[in-house]
Amino acid sequence: MEQITDKQPMLKPRNTSIAFFLSLLFPGLGQIYNGQPKKGFFFFGLQLLIPFLFGITGWPLFFYGLLLLVVIVLGLRIYIILDSVKHARRQKAYMLKPYNTWYCYLAFIAAASITFHFYDISAVIGIQSFKIPSDPNEPTVRRGDFIVVDANAYKNRPPDYGDIIVFTHADGQKYTYRIVGLPNDKLTLKGNIVTVNGRSGKTAYMKDAWFNGIPVIETEETLPNGHKHQLYLLKEPSDTGMPDIANITVPPDSYYVLGDNRDYAADSRYKGFVKRTSIKGRIIYSYWGKDATRINLDFRKI
Hints:
This protein is of the alpha+beta class and 302 residues long. Helices cover 30% and strands 28% of the residues. The chain has helices at residues 16-25, 29-33, 37-57, 63-90, 102-118, 121-125, 268-271, and strands spanning 127-131, 146-150, 164-168, 174-181, 186-190, 193-196, 199-200, 202-211, 214-222, 228-234, 245-249, 254-258, 274-275, 279-288, 297-298. Strand 9 (214-222) and strand 10 form a beta hairpin. Keywords: Hydrolase, Membrane, Protease, Transmembrane, Transmembrane helix.
């Protein structure tokens, strides 16, 4: 790139293509290339500040808050690019500045790369996003759903009955199931009726349905604490090897989880208890899926 080789000022017009690609890859660098370092560093800082402010407000915990964040960040990025191209086009007789050198640009790129490497936007705004790859929580959470997880859900309160959590198992895989048992609870599951500390839940028939070409019954399960959600149950029970549980006690700092697609879930009946330290967060909503009904679906209400 440009470099001053003598004491005489060097004039060189700005290249709009270079300004475009510098801004596209590293917001603010196009402005520095155009001789606007203050604006360039301001834009760069703004890209970091906006997610931080949204994280403080907690808006990304709701669909429209996350949508607003995406629109603002994307809009700002487009504006930065257009601004750099516009000003580059105007610089027909640009006088090179001391920082218009390849090594100054490289220093900015290195600093920006290091900053973005350590700037975890998911941690800043307090959420993570996943795509659901399987069916164990149908019909509530469906295969193909793009879901948002509140990573800070349990900083100020413990997990509760009915929460759909994401956790890491000892096999290194991430799973998502619904909590039905808290630490020190005594549990029984018989005929898909959950009993917690002697208090029995219930299920109520809703309708016949189909799951992957198999006839199922869609029911409403009410946990002993009153939390209600939907289940899929096979019309004709199959031998799953561990259909029921009897008089087990959840260890301290652990939880018992079950899938809403009860006959297809490799949940605590097979994987064991979930330790508190392995819980990564709570599923709060979906923002995309196989059809429009999966957009802005709040799992805290179902």
